[in-house]
Amino acid sequence: xxxxxxxxxxxxxxxxxxxxxxxxxDTANAMATTISTGALKPKTAVVMSAVLNLVGAFLxxxxxxxxxxxxxxxxxxxxxxxxxxxxxxxxxxxxxWLVGLPSSSSHALMGGLIGATVASIGVSGVxxxxxxxxxxxxxxxxxxxxxxxxxxxxxxxxxxxxxTSEKDTAKGYRVGQIASAGLVSLAHGTNDAxxxxxxxxxxxxxxxxxAPGSNPPVWVIVSxxxxxxxxxxxxxxxxxxxxxxxxxxxxxxxxxxxxxSAATVILASSHLGFSLSTTHSVSGAVMGAGLGRKGGVVRxxxxxxxxxxxxxxxPAAGLVGAGAEYVARQGQWGVYVVAAFLAASCVAIWxxxxxxxxxxxxxxxxxxxxxxxxxxxxxIAAVTPPPAGTVAAVADExxxxxxxxxxxxxxxxxxxxxxx
Length: 420
Prior knowledge:
Layout: H1 6-25, H2 27-36, H3 42-56, H4 62-70, H5 79-98, H6 105-121, H7 128-160, H8 166-206, H9 218-234, H10 237-246, H11 252-272, H12 278-292, H13 300-328, H14 332-353, H15 375-383, H16 390-402
Helix pairs in contact: 1-5, 1-8, 1-9, 2-3, 2-8, 2-10, 2-12, 3-8, 3-9, 4-8, 5-6, 5-13, 5-14, 6-13, 7-11, 7-12, 8-9, 8-11, 11-12
């Protein structure tokens, strides 16, 4: 292992903490639909996802190269900049996890890195062309492509199984859903674990322990893969609830189509070196699957809150990263202040989350303040004819409850006298 100073050690540990939060923040991407449809039990699903995340981390380093060599200029970047970037990314991950919103850990990391770099050496330190071509364009294209593919895939699955009973097809689709969920987990490892590899490699280059342009060392690959797997095994139950139940109600056919579409998009982007958000891909696929089923409904107010979080991710993490960089560059005491602030913030957010805990026992329960049906859904329900026999049954029940039986008469009572 390269010679690492105390500052670099703090940066590496912080990077692995980010990787850990990335794991439980993005567990929903792979397993939310599988859990919501009952294809796998919650704990089994997250353990399976964790193992495949670890395997995926060893399959490629293309995304790591994009982070470590392309996003920002290595010249002039100091380890304090990397630390500040990680602070912005971790805090955004934890805040969005607390409120149950599926946001992009990748964009949080890149936003923090861009903000800290601009605060340190100016706008010239950021490679704008790389940001646009390998970050922003994929961020917009990924959910659209995955959503269209999932919509078409859902329609196709229902068309193929139209003449087969739901009971006969459900088991097969659940098996397919498990396989596709595993594929998403594998893809997540090939994409997201590498972002931490890239950021640690960039820190080692900035600290002078690696030559510019170096690939991630083996120990970096192993530690990053292990950290994201441990985070995944913890389970991000709040976001799993939102992704599995909050956006739309999925059946096994839809879950299979959504996960297969998302996995295809993620694996293709990893091969091309695009630093793609798995959250964007999977969320787009889930919404597409919701639209692909006849009668399916997407809860657009939940989706709108999610879109707002997506739009805020880069600037919010960037602002926090820039502020942290300003404090950290003041000297060694500044680094300690930033590290202490991060630790205190993490503890505070965790304590707040304990007020209304969400875990594997209640992840599939609908929240008491869950979003009601939208105006369109309510209108459709109001004009939809009831099933045959419903009206008669209701009328008969009303008659029974509104027309009382005659009161029994007492034989000993005198006859009623008619009023004159």
